[in-house]
Amino acid sequence: MTPSSHRAAPRMCAALALAVVAGCSASPPVAQAGPAPVIEPEVLAEIPHDPAAFTQGFEINGSVLFEGTGLAGESQMRQLDPAAGTVTRAVDIPADYFGEGITLVGDKIWQLTYQDGVAVEWDKNTMAPVREVPLSGEGWGLCYDGQRLIRSDGTSRLTFHDPADFSEIGGVDVDNDGGQLKGLNELECVDGQVWANVWPTDNIARIDPSSGAVTLLVNAGALRERGIPPTAQVLNGIAHVQGDEFLLTGKFWPKTFRVRLGG
């Protein structure tokens, strides 16, 4: 995939060849035979979102929604009011890097860069860059499961990193019913599972990082019918609120959706 295709991904609607399974329980994911069930998000609220934001990372911490944006020369680390969607603070990424996924670890924030070969650590409170560390390969999505950082690079691979120094400590290949699930993008770690936007679609996969198995697929294409213009790019932004509630947005989307993802 070329840098231009990542920066300007065309809209490609979800084309999942799986039946929608209704009435999924909220019990923990279990091993299953055959395709993962498919659900659609239940929309609870619509919140304004900066339509100029090329969203790459999305994570709530207390009363603050952190957002990392992309594009070379335009990338920022932002703080938002999660209820109103307004940007309360924005800081440019160092060196005009192309910013990618973000995640919080204590009072620090890790932010990936796309093809710049570094990850940037920020101070969460001062919103100042603290250091840069080498990054092998491309950076796409990032989340923290309480013990390790989990990174995507646009392939079917999830790579594990030590949160102290970003050194690689393992990884897993993601499998969807016997086939690789490629295009893993923005990530959110929740209760031992990884939720991943799947580029270049408006789909989300829930992944068991211990096995790499996809345990649930979310077809979020219908969100576009709620005022998302055709010029907006793919869904890319998952922030866990509580329980099975999440905030979802996309690149250049004028709205963020508070949704319930059962399953």
UniProtKB/TrEMBL annotation:
Keywords assigned by UniProt, alphabetized: Signal
Highest taxon in the source lineage: Bacteria
A Pfam match: Glu_cyclase_2
Signal peptide positions on this chain: 1-33
Coiled coil: none
Name listed for the protein in its UniProt record: Glutaminyl-peptide cyclotransferase
Organism: Mycolicibacterium iranicum
Phylogenetic lineage: Bacteria, Bacillati, Actinomycetota, Actinomycetes, Mycobacteriales
